[in-house]
Design brief:
By secondary structure, the chain is mainly beta. The chain has helices at about 60, 300-305, 310; strands at about 5-10, 15-20, 25-30, 40, 70, 105-110, 115-120, 130-135, 145-150, 155-160, 160, 165, 175-180, 185, 205, 210, 220, 225, 230-235, 240-245, 250-260, 265-270, 285-295, 320, 325-335.
Length: about 350
């Protein structure tokens, strides 16, 4: 029986937020716009009250919002095309989905009316020793500033990432993905979900606005939710550390900003009614907007190898040393935007 999830909440002049011990996940977050409207852009999975969810992996039981993934992805047996291999660095526990911290309960640190802090200790045989997380609402804006510290136990290279997941309405194309400058769009080299793939595999394009599908068509992948029922991934490499989502039916933008030197790619997770088994049940509609130093979510053995993204000059792993704390900062905010 897993530990019971505990939560902490904070309210400030421009909103309120909730953080849970399970996975250290932030969400929901309610922001107050200057015109008085309230908006809540982060996703909360629809099975959170199902009794049956206790049968799920810990990461899925109360899936929501945003959390760090160290390492990002997981090692698994996959059939990959030429140029991709799982010949990089691996270790015991590398098969855990999105890392140890995504699947256990974090410990609470200092929590007051200004901040929430937490930490997660890793198993003694793991190359990472500790994660620390600090969540601080901006007292002067509809924004939340986040800090992640990673302390290594031994020298290692790992893919890492952040996992913000945003809610989408049911109307296709009602949200526009507006990334900052980036170099290239990569499609997943295999199937994310058997029978639910959409994008032509193992390809590259110059724009998210024109991506080829497996049905020999081209679609604008920047307009979500997609019409098609799919579960698929696209990776934007060389991105400048910024992205906005324009909720055109609701008149606001959600913005994410991060340190591009730590996370030079952005993974877009299109979860669009493609997974039919429990708990997804063909009803899950959300968009993952995930800053990464990783090759998709293929895990340490692929991401630390000479994969095509790394060969192109974009880092897919970070080197950690026990003598030096890794610290990265990022920001989630909203602002008013035109409807339509």
């Amino acid at each position: 029986m897993s530990a019971e999830t505990t939560r902490r909440a904070l309210a400030w002049a421009h909103g309120c937020l909730s953080v849970q011990s399970a996975g250290g996940m932030l969400g929901p977050v309610l922001f107050l716009l200057p015109d008085g409207r309230q908006v809540s852009p982060l996703h909360v999975a629809p099975w959170g009250n199902d009794y049956e969810r206790e049968t799920l992996p810990e990461i899925l039981r109360e899936l929501r919002g945003e959390w760090p993934c160290v390492p990002f992805g997981s090692d698994a047996d996959r059939t990959l095309p030429t140029g991709w291999s799982a010949t990089g660095e691996s270790f015991a526990g590398a098969g855990v989905p999105h890392g140890h911290s995504s699947n256990v309960h974090w410990d609470w640190g200092a929590c007051d009316d200004r901040q929430i802090t937490m930490e997660c200790h890793y198993p003694e045989n793991h190359p990472i020793r500790l994660l620390r997380r600090r969540i601080v609402p901006d007292p002067n804006a509809a924004a939340v500033d986040l800090t992640l510290e990673i302390e290594a136990r031994r020298p290692c290279r790992l893919p890492i990432g952040l996992h913000p997941t945003f809610r989408l309405s049911s109307r296709p194309g009602s949200v526009a993905i507006e990334p900052g400058a980036y170099d290239q769009v990569w499609s997943f080299p295999s199937d994310v979900e058997p029978g639910a793939a959409l994008f032509s595999p193992n390809r590259q394009w110059s724009s998210l606005g024109k991506v080829d599908t497996r049905g020999d068509a081209s679609i604008d992948a920047s307009q979500v939710p997609l019409v098609e029922e799919t579960e698929d991934l696209l990776q934007l490499s060389g991105i400048d550390g910024s992205l906005a989502l324009h909720y055109r039916d609701e008149g606001f933008r959600a913005r994410l900003a991060w340190q591009k030197e730590h996370f030079p790619s952005l993974l877009l997770w299109f979860s669009n009614r493609g997974r039919k088994a429990y708990p997804w049940n063909g009803r899950h509609v959300a968009l993952g907007v995930e800053p990464i130093a990783s090759a998709f979510d293929l895990g340490p053995a692929v991401s630390t190898a000479d994969n095509p993204i790394a060969v192109s000059g974009v880092a897919t792993a970070i080197a950690f040393d026990p003598g030096q704390m890794f610290t990265t900062r990022y920001r989630l905010s909203v602002d008013a935007a035109p409807i339509g």
